[in-house]
Design goal:
Bound molecules: ligand C2E, magnesium ion
Largest sheet: 8 strands, mixed, barrel
Helix content: 40-55%
Number of helices: 20
Radius of gyration: 41 Å
Distance between the termini: 149 Å
Number of strands: 19
Oligomer: single chain
Strand content: 15-25%
Structural class: alpha/beta
Mean pLDDT: 89
Strand order of the largest sheet: 10-11-13-14-15-16-17-18
């Protein structure tokens, strides 16, 4: 303002201001400021400083857009990181089943165009991730082989995608082939190619197996993978390492599901029965004992032999309560016979390997012993040799040995069941208090037409005797086998030739009749 006013006039004004009341001056200044501020409105600014205003506006827009972009970028990164984690198998750093499930429709549409007319399959490859291999060569070696297998398979034209799935050491592949035969052939080739790892000094077998299941658009992938996995587990010496999920497996699976559905109820309804197969003196034919074998008289499924359900119960742990049922029923039978003053022979009961790691096993066995109060030695326990072959580590073996010693002290004689059937751990005979060697049927069958096997059988019998064990052979079906066993020095036997397993009442009648006959001849 000052620039536009006469200096003289300015002086006069300054002087006169001093005569004005302070309130009036304050009001006047306030009014002037308000006027100035009113002038600083956006409109005023744009009018007076158009370029600067435009630049400020652009700057503002850039800042807002930048911060919005940054926010969404960070969000996307975050979502990607979470997705990456959710869709990746953290052990092998490969896509996992969740990813495969999402990707499946794309695979179908892409392959439908690229390979029209081909059928789809889900192949599960499973490699042995057993601790013994891992312990010896390191887990890294196995993991690396697994990732290599995945990468190599994806390079093959018949493999669309692979993912790590179900369990450690399981690779799931979505594949195409002309028909079932072709996919089996391809899978067999893959198993041969990837089933070994070569190190500088060894060629390690990974015991690779494969299971195959047909896959159709709209199928529930998880179910198909489960079926392929079942086929994979069923592959054995006769079917080879590759197996297709067919109707027979389908029926088996359905039965397995029913068995698992009814087992609890069956236990409560006392449907598990103890049958007894006599053991006899081959020379005199006298009945000298029996083996208790479980049978399931199911209200829903009918009569089932243990081959149908024991392997399932071994897997799901239900064999533990079932074994106790048999132990209890056998004690009850012996007690009844003693109370009636009748002849009593030792009866053996099979014990699953699961008891070795079962919490409170010894206490439960002791409780049964205390409940029935019968002389020691009348109930024996059969334990398969694989119980000990399985334990890789020394402390596990020692734990198992402690249990065996405790059972022995409680009054249970111990039998090695199926001796010679698997990879025998002969060393168990050294450190375990085993009383009876029960030779597996397979050795007897193999001896039928092989002189070498006869020699082996003879030497096994001698081994048992040298270790002061009683020796019995199971599965005798012919008189010729009886003669061979007597010649080789094995006096006791069990088998269909003498008698099949039978219910308790029949067994005691059978035994009484037979032993009366034998004794009368003497
Ligand atoms: P295992 O303990 O080796 O029992 C002998 C099996 O051989 C029985 O089959 C018996 O019936 C069969 N056998 C007997 N004599 C002959 C013969 O001359 N020829 C042939 N071919 N077989 C004969 P089973 O009763 O079917 O039992 C099969 C397996 O199931 C048993 O083999 C045992 O490992 C298991 N098992 C049976 N009952 C029980 C149980 O109560 N608990 C447990 N944990 N396992 C059981
Ligand atoms: Mg047995
Ligand atoms: Mg046996």
């Amino acid at each position: 303002v000052r620039q536009h006013v006469e200096p003289a006039l300015w002086l006069i004004l300054n002087k006169e201001i001093n005569h004005l009341p302070p309130d009036l001056i304050r009001n006047a200044i306030g009014e002037a400021v308000r006027h100035q501020v009113r002038q600083l409105s956006p409109k005023w600014l744009i009018y007076h400083y158009p370029m600067q205003a435009l630049m400020a506006l652009m700057l503002l827009i850039v800042v807002i857009a930048g911060s919005l972009y940054y926010r969404s970028y960070m969000r996307r990164r975050h979502v990607e990181a979470i997705q990456q984690m959710a869709y990746t198998d953290q052990r092998y750093m490969l896509p996992n089943m969740l990813w495969l499930e999402q990707e499946l429709p794309n695979l179908f549409s892409r392959a439908g165009r690229a390979a029209p007319g081909k059928k789809f399959y889900c192949v599960v490859f499973a490699m042995e991730s057993k601790s013994s291999v891992a312990e010896m060569y390191g887990r890294d070696l196995l993991d690396r082989q697994f990732r290599d297998m995945s990468a190599n398979l994806e390079n093959k034209t018949w493999v669309l995608k692979t993912a790590a799935g179900i369990d450690a050491g399981h690779l799931v592949a979505i594949c195409v082939a002309i028909d079932d035969e072709e996919i089996i052939e391809l899978a067999v080739g893959a198993v041969q190619q990837f089933g070994y790892v070569a190190t500088s000094d060894a060629r390690i077998s990974l015991h690779l197996r494969a299971g195959i299941c047909s896959l159709y658009e709209g199928d529930f992938l998880q179910q198909i993978v489960e079926r392929a996995d079942i086929a994979c587990q069923e592959g054995d010496g006769t079917t080879g390492a590759v197996r297709f999920f067919d109707t027979s497996l389908q029926e088996k699976l359905a039965l397995q599901q029913k068995i698992e559905g009814y087992m609890e109820k069956a236990l409560a309804a006392d449907e598990f029965q103890a049958w007894y197969q006599p053991k006899y003196d081959i020379e005199t034919r006298r009945i000298i004992g029996a083996e208790a074998l479980v049978r399931w008289q199911s209200a829903e499924l009918g009569f089932l032999s243990p081959g149908k359900f024991i392997p399932i119960f071994e897997k799901n742990g239900f064999v533990i309560p079932v074994d106790f049922v048999l132990v209890e029923k056998t004690f009850a039978l012996q007690k009844r016979r003693l109370e009636e003053g009748k002849e009593v022979v030792p009866i053996s009961v099979n014990q699953s390997r699961l008891h070795i790691t079962e919490e409170g096993y010894l206490e439960k066995m002791q409780a049964i012993v205390d409940k029935y109060q019968i002389p020691k030695g009348l109930v024996e326990l059969e334990i398969t040799e694989t119980v000990f072959g399985d334990f890789d580590q020394k402390e596990h073996r020692e734990h198992a040995a402690n249990i065996m010693h405790s059972l022995h002290e409680m009054g249970f004689p111990l039998l090695v069941d199926d001796f010679g059937s698997g990879f025998s751990s002969f060393s168990m005979l050294d450190y375990l208090p085993m009383d009876v060697m029960k030779i597996d049927r397979s050795l007897l069958v193999a001896s039928d037409d092989s002189d070498r096997m006869k020699d082996i059988l003879g030497n096994i019998i001698r081994l048992g005797k040298t270790l002061h064990m009683s020796v019995i052979c199971e599965g005798i079906e012919t008189e010729e086998q009886e003669r061979l066993l007597l010649k080789l020095g094995c006096r006791y036997g069990q088998g269909f030739l003498n008698a099949k397993p039978m219910p308790g009442k029949e067994f005691v009648e059978f035994m009484e009749k037979r032993n009366a006959e034998v004794d009368a001849k003497r």
